[in-house]
Amino acid sequence: MKRQRATELLQEMLDHLEQGRRPLDLVDEVHVFGSYARGALEPGDLDVVVVHRRDTEFTEDVVTALMYGRDPMADMKRALKGNRRGIQFQFNQNDLPPGSEPKLLWKRGDTPAAARDRLHAIKADPNAGRAPRDAMIEQFDGLDRWIPLPVRTRLVDMLDAGAIDIRRIELPDTETSSPAAATALARRWKADSPLRRAAAAAIRYAEEAGIAAQSVWVQGRPLDPARRDYAGALWINLDWYDFNQLIYRLRQQAQCLEVIRPTRTQPLHALHITVRGATALPDL
Fold first, then answer.
1. Using CA atoms, how far apart are residues 143 and 164, in angstroms rounded to an integer?
2. pTM of the model as a whole
3. Which domains does the chain have, with CATH numbers?
């Protein structure tokens, strides 16, 4: 993407924020980081951080979207960028990679002129160049648009430290062979839910790997209601659910199966994360 085009997209976003339509009335700050913020003449996708509040209506909308396998932030993204492409959002993200140096673009209470001045104060730098994709490994190739940059960074750091192994797999699009597991899924999701499809495929993968259903947790809940401890468990997480608990679970010698993008029809890809060296895991 040319820098001029990127600037136009950001200006349109500022116009939308000024109008403040729902749910943009919950937004407090917007920052831009990455290649554009460094001044690159061809920055590629724009990297934008959005800091926002939640109210009861917003929380209910997020929960409903998750139940039906939709992107819980789709309404917020659409309100910010309309139908435009080329913007990657991070929401309420405080652990951006070192060197990201996000620059404030807009904050609640700004006049249009103040926000516009901030945008145009981010000057082009012919020497900045377009940055290579940050925190990339072979296992992420082709999936990185659905793996947030802070997630990629944390996983790569642990991989480089010898703390974990990451294996990429394509899940079998089949149902679980366990009646109890099928019943548990039916209680949580409708038959046509992408989340149910992804969870069933992940459970089937666990079965074929010889992992007992009593050791499997799906989206924060155990398949066996009597299970309370995490030691040795397999955590199946859909679309980075509760990712901030990853290190704690790995320290309990658990495994994690992260299903990247639950969909109704497309292939289901997952990352199987296991502990290689517990002493190299980061502190909690």
1. 19
2. 0.65
3. 3-121 (3.30.460), 138-280 (no CATH)
